[in-house]
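Now for today's protein:

——
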Amino acid sequence: MAQLRDLKDELDIVIPTIRNLDFLEMWRPFFQPYHLIIVQDGDPSNTIGVPEGFDYELYNRNDVNRILGPKASCIPFKDSACRCFGFLVSKKKYIFTIDDDCFVAKEPNGKEINALEQHIRNLLTPSTPLFFNTLYDPFANGSDFVRGYPFSLREGLPTAISHGLWLNIPDYDAPTQLVKPRERNTRYVDAVMTIPKGTLFPMCGMNLAFDRELIGPAMYFGLMGDGQPIGRYDDMWAGWCAKVICDHLLLGVKTGLPYIWHSKASNPFVNLKKEYKGIYWQEDIIPFFQSIALREECTSVQDCYIELANKVKERLGPIDPYFEKLGDAMVTWIEAWNELNPPPPPAQTATVAHPNVAMKN
């Protein structure tokens, strides 16, 4: 099992928000050693309060427009999908992203859960998407490969995404919220599993970590929110795209631990207005992703994503003009990624820092 190491110089925490970040006080023992990238949504003239003692950068819409210029059109506005701008400007190997209504959860024995530590553990140990292990993650403490697991596959594959879960308020769509308004998730399952190759999943962005070097260009949360016909499908869109690319490039996705405490239920009627086209469209979107076969020539995440963008326009475009616009935005996103994250020249090892905005120590 890989040694768990300190990643304070290799990991950024990305937080989208429209409000003061008082919730960070609860996370202080776990987050304070790390650098925060805060993406302020909504009116850039509003002041966002950040507790003292955190090392952070704060970006608002004016900064997005200044840094990306015309390419800023690919960054969503008035939607938590704006978090992907933080992925774009980070220069760290790993990203952990969390919503501002998520607090520290507790294990059944009352011990506070260090969500970041578990995500790091997930990312630093291999995944097993090619053959399912019935004891779930064979690299977890107290686990191993079961009898009958091929020895040739026991080395596993690099883990690109660690998808955490939530206690208290479940991550439900609006119709389920409406029929189960008082339901709470109290079930703590002490398990991590690799999502098998060829299987999609609904990715939730409120408790998520990933290896930016392995899969970063695919973690685009799409065009959602203000001016768009759909919302609340941003993280799921990124998850479907990323999973198809992970399967193609033989990378792994883990789900399960860690848990966070989701404190606030959003309004189901507001959610229904945002989701209703997505609920209808997903009956075509899911088969689309299930049928995708990327060309062997696509050997980088960027190559895969551009091909995926073209297929979105070609096959989903006839459903609604929105998908033509989304496919174009996906291409713009990759152009922005390559502009802010150019590969270093062969003889050059030093990296150039991105422009700092509202840097605090």
Summary: Confidence is low (pLDDT under 50) at residues 348-361. The CA atoms of residues 186 and 256 lie 14 Å apart.
